[in-house]
Amino acid sequence: MQIVIAIVLVTVVGLLCSLMLVVASHYMSVPTNEKEEKLRNCLPGANCGACGYTGCDGYAKALANDPTIATNLCIPGGDKTAKALADVLGVKALDVAEKEAVIHCYGDTSKRSKKGIYEGIKSCVAAKSVYGGEADCTFGCIGYGDCASVCPVDAICIENGIAHIDSRKCIGCGLCEKACPNHLISLKNVEKTIIVSCSNCEKGAVARKECTNACIKCKKCENICPQGAIKVKNNVAQIDYSLCNNCGMCVKVCPTHCIVDTSLAEN
Amino acid sequence: MLKSLIVILMTSVLVNNYVLNRFLGICPFLGVSKKLNQAVGMGVAVIFVMLLATLVTWPIQMYLLEPNDLGYMQTIVFILVIAALVQLVEIILKKYVPSLHKALGVYLPLITTNCAVLGVTINNINDSYNFIESIVSSLGCGLGFLLAMVLFAGVRSRLETSNAPQSFKGLPLTLIAAAIVSCAFFGFAGIIENLFI
Predict the structure, then answer these.
(1) Which end of chain B is more exposed for a tag (fewer CB within 10 A), N or C?
(2) DSSP code of A115?
(3) Predicted local confidence at residue A19, as pLDDT
(4) Is B78 in a helix, a strand, or coil?
């Protein structure tokens, strides 16, 4: 008898509670924007901020409220997300220019020379404030991984004192671009494969002494490029990606091999 | 009367601290104590839920379970009632006090069936407190939880920058630090009762 009372009592309490919750959720539900929720479900949820809004929730909210905002701002989500967003909003889908981060310094510890030993806080920003870091070259990668620590997908690893970006993992959010105190990381279209792996703006002879990978401003690349896409500007070779067609002529002539074809150099 | 209430309050904050002395609610204690503002948010949410839970469970025990000789069902009934209640409060807050919901909202579902909350309600019954005493006791327990969270958030921020051996980094060091803070709180035993003689 006792057990029956117990069962009945617990059941009644449970039913009362659930009834209370049902009534409450019915009468006091806050009207959430359905469209916004649908849009939010389309987004990848990495909250990386590449779209320029505060995370995926912010982007969904902005999209729901303002029809003029483009649907292709989510770079990690790529074409699929842009299409899903466009479907929900009923607008035409725009292609996403898929981007990946590349680092413009390949001067690892075997290539660059050192001016001293740094034993302070293991952070690039801190190391940069002390004579620009350990290496003679003050433009290059310091190698304490400020970029790796902000990467949401662990695409960056530090090896031999420089950062390597795994293009297969990179979602193109651009957080590392902002974290690097030497501004070595930039986002480029995934279809463009030629990069200049040096950012040293010293004169050729000085740069060569500091690092065997350095751009020595010989202008061979500039002279051979059939498109006129590569120019030595501000004392370092720079590629105009709107003109580059991945022909790879500059890669062959570069005497220090600081121009690389990432599709071939994939280690 | 007032004296006994103060003794109950001080005892539950310092001597019988739920985290550091009774080892209840360790999960949020270790999980959310990394940053001070999160720790405070969690602590305030716990105070709120503990008070609310006591307000409801004490009458249930006294007027529903005990007259029917069902005191042994208190754990199940309490969990059920507390979980439903916190959900209800969340709905109400979301509707009428959105700012408060934004501040506490993340933490409320986390502590619906937290053992510290359940522990407070059951211990109030076991210590045969009356209604007022129960409320004061759960307020004290909540304040104690907040105190422990805030203190430990400070300890952990110091641990972050400490130069510890690799094998101790992270959780081991946190647990050792928690043990030391707990030892410190054992020093309060016997003080409060003698303060008011």
Answers:
(1) C
(2) S
(3) 92
(4) helix
Distance CA B57, CA B45 (A): 18
**ipTM score assigned to the predicted complex:** 0.73
Show residues of chain B in contact with A29, CB under 8 Å: 91, 95
Which residues of chain B make contact with A2, given a CB cutoff of 8 A?
Answer: 69
| pLDDT, tens digit, 9 for 90 and up, residues A2-29 | 888 888 888 998 999 899 888 888 887 7
Cα–Cα distance, B17 to B21 (Å, whole number): 5
Distance CA B109, CA B117 (A): 13
Quick one: which of B154, B185, B181 has its CA closest to B39? Answer: B154
- Counted domains in chain A: 2
pLDDT tens sequence across B148-181: 999 999 998 888 888 888 888 888 999 999 999 9
pTM higher than the cut 0.95: no
- Cα–Cα distances (Å) from B95 to A161, B18, B116, in that order, read 54, 32, 27
Could A28 and B91 be called an inter-chain contact, meaning their C-beta atoms sit closer than 8 Å? yes
Q: Does A178 lie in the same domain as A152?
A: yes
Beta strand spans in A104-200 (E): 156-159, 162-165, 185-189, 194-196
**Alpha helices for chain A (secondary structure H):** 2-27, 34-42, 55-65, 78-89, 124-129, 146-150, 175-179, 204-210, 220-224, 249-253
- The boundaries of the domain holding residue A106 are 99-266
**Number of neighbours of residue B55 by Cβ within 10 angstroms:** 15
Residue A196's nearest CA partner among A78, A105, A267 is A105
Mean pLDDT of chain B: 86
Between CA B33 and CA B159 the distance in angstroms is: 12
Q: Are B10 and B192 in contact, with CB atoms under 8 Å apart?
A: yes
Residues 47-76 of A with CB under 8 A from B: none
Q: Report the CATH number at residue A195.
A: 3.30.70.20
Is A14 within the bounds of a domain?
Answer: no
C-beta separation of B29 from B114 below 8 A: no
